[in-house]
Structure formats: C-alpha cells, structure tokens
Fold this sequence. Notes:
Elements lengths: L7 E4 L6 E5 L4 H13 L6 H27 L9 H10 L7 H15 E6 L3 H10 L3 E6 L3 H10 L8 E4 H4 L6 H10 L7 E5 L2 H10 L3 E5 L15 E3 L4 H11 L3
Amino acid sequence: xxxxxxxxxxxxxxxxxxxxxxxxxxxxxxxxxxxxxxxxxxxxxxxxxxxxxxxxxxxxxxxxxxxxxxxxxxxxxxxxxxxxxxxxxxxxxxxxxxxxxxxxxxxxxxxxxxxxxxxxxxxxxxxxxxxxxxxxxxxxxxxxxxxxxxxxxxxxxxxxxxxxxxxxxxxxxxxxxxxxxxxxxxxxxxxxxxxxxxxxxxxxxxxxxxxxxxxxxxxxxxxxxxxxxxxxxxxxxxxxxxxxxxxxxxxxxx
Length: 254
C-alpha cells in the first residue's frame, strides 16, 4: 500500500494539461479543406462542405447515441469519430477513401483550425514525478483520435502516461459513467485510490465522483463557466499549476 492517499492519477487533457485554442468557423479553413477534397476528386464549395460536415456529425452522433442507450441506458453520452465523417465526405462525392487518407484529412483540418497549443508550466515535470514515484498516470480525454494523439506528441507528453483513453475511440464521453468504467474495468482500478483532475466541473468532477473517484478541479481560461463552487475534493480556482502540482504530489505521498 502506498504511503500517499492515491496510487492512480487520471487527467483530462485540454484546458487541464494544455492550453488550446481552435477556430472552426474561419473561412480560410473551409476554403483550404475544399481545395484538399477537390484535389482528390471530391468537389464541394466551402459552404456545402461545412454544411455537410455538420450534418454528418449529427447523424453519427444520433446513431451512436441510440446504440449506446440500448446497451447502457440513458446515462450514455455518445462521442462520434470525426475521421469517419471525413471519410464519408469523400464517399458522398463517389470517391473511395482509405483509412489513412481519412486520418490525414482529419489532421489537416485540425492543424488549420488550431490557433494555440501550449503545455501549462510544470505539467510535464509533475506527471513524470508521479510516474517515477511508482504511480499510475492515465489520460481520459473527450477528444478525437486523429486530432489529439498527434497533439499529445506535439506537446511532448506521450511518455507521461501509462495509457491514453480518447472518447472518440471508445464511442462515449465524459461525464457519462460508461467512459469512466471503461478505464476502471480495463485496468482493474480501485476507485478509492484514484484522483481525477480536470477543468470541467461537470465532465471531470461530477463524472468522476459518480463512479467513486476523488477529484481535483482546476479553473483555467478555457473552463466552462462555473455555477457556484465546484463540488470537488480539491480545488485550484486561479489556474495556478504550481498549486495543483503541490496537491498532486502531496496526496501521492511524494
């Protein structure tokens, strides 16, 4: 048994470990994506591409939600894989699309829409101290595989995690307990020995608490607006990662 309170540390990614800003509304993005699709024989105008993209996301989400609710009940929350949508956009125009081409298209879209990606000060050092101290460190992110796995590489954080779970790969997202239970059951975790850290009072705090995990809430610039005090075990309301690191390492017994 560890001398600390927790043996397992679970982290959200965006807004918790990294500061990211994206803009999927800018005309430049849709113009360049139209050019990419057109170069492969799938001809759209920018407005049509954007409209079809949004429609297909809704279709994929509705299909997944229906399947998930039949299996898990109303607590399920679907997370469609947007790479499927990028593939369907080719197929809509009669162009076959291998998986690799769909993944490259997704990455192209994300690269053009991304305006900022920066690791918060102290994050990498803290995560590595936890791992070096024998703790299990997991990432549990509401995210897209072909957006987020490249961005984890870009930020140099890949080696900080025991395992990485991404909602689009599992088909469900936080705060649904289904996504948390994927992590718990896959890695045989004892929830009373787990601490979940995130910047969303619903997805990260309420979601983790619902499956028996303690929580550390950090309020950052990209956090959803708070409605009262977050019901977390620990809180850092000014976004100071030094304060968060102190809590994490102290509660790890390091």
